[in-house]
Amino acid sequence: MPSLPQTVWLAVAGGLLVVAVVLLVLWLATARRLREERRQAAEDDRFTAQLQVSVADQGGRLRIIRELHDVAVHRVSAIVAQADGARYAGATDPTAAVRAAQTIAETGRATLADMRRVMTLVRESEAEAAPQPRLKSTRELFKTMRDAGLSVVVEEHGEAYDLNSGAELAVYRILQEALSNSLKYGGDGTEVRVVFTWTSSGLAVRVDDDGFRNAVLRRGLTPDDAAAELSYGVEEDLRSLTQEIAGPGIQEMRARTELFGGTLTATETPGVGFSISAVFPSIRFHNGVHGVDLSRR
């Protein structure tokens, strides 16, 4: 039997070597991939476990907050009842009014302690709690929105005065939501006019934008096509006057406004854009419960 030439043996050996190298590379790649998958699975398991612990912890905190809130509401109701009783008893028995006042003070201190516990739990739940924005922070808000692409013009009428922190936060959040909507629906280049009107006890905030018009112009339409799309008639005018604009953002702004005795209206101007108006008739003295000036005269 004739032997194969040496070159054939070398070719066969070379081919087997190449196959072996390819198989080795594939095996190493597979082994590396399996190790990576096991490592990723282990990380996912750790993350899931941490998430479950975090959810359980937050659930516990919320449960405690809810319970403390219920206790506080009950105590505040008791304070109101005791105050009413003291008012009637004081007319005939001054000592009864003194005893009731002492009880009210003790109940109030206990309620305040519970509220502080609630705030402690809330702050612990926030890893990095930033200070709440105030009206002075609107300058930074306007700058941020201008950097994002809005053209914001601000007007202020009347003499401004300090508000309590809750009222200032409400006004800030309303402005933040309104400007965010202008940027969302109108896009880069939308012109926004913000007007603050101060009265002796109230404040009106209005935000007007040209989001509709700007969104159409940004599409690069010809002047005729843009004019046709922005045109409107009696039907559109009637709809803008009667249609109630709704949505989660509008509802939140309305809730913040009503909390301080105000009213919020959201309207659209056909062919132009949106308008948000928040009117607070007595925000200067409003504390989220009433809007009466309790200062001594």
TrEMBL record:
One Pfam family this sequence matches: HATPase_c
One annotated Gene Ontology cellular component of this protein: membrane
Record flagged with keyword Thylakoid: no
Source superkingdom: Bacteria
Cross-referenced InterPro entries: HATPase_C_sf, HATPase_dom, Sensor_HK_TwoCompSys, Sig_transdc_His_kin_sub3_dim/P
Domain called Histidine kinase/HSP90-like ATPase: residue spans: 168-281
Domain Signal transduction histidine kinase subgroup 3 dimerisation and phosphoacceptor: 61-125
Protein name: histidine kinase
Species whose genome carries this gene: Amnibacterium kyonggiense
Lineage, top ranks: Bacteria, Bacillati, Actinomycetota, Actinomycetes, Micrococcales
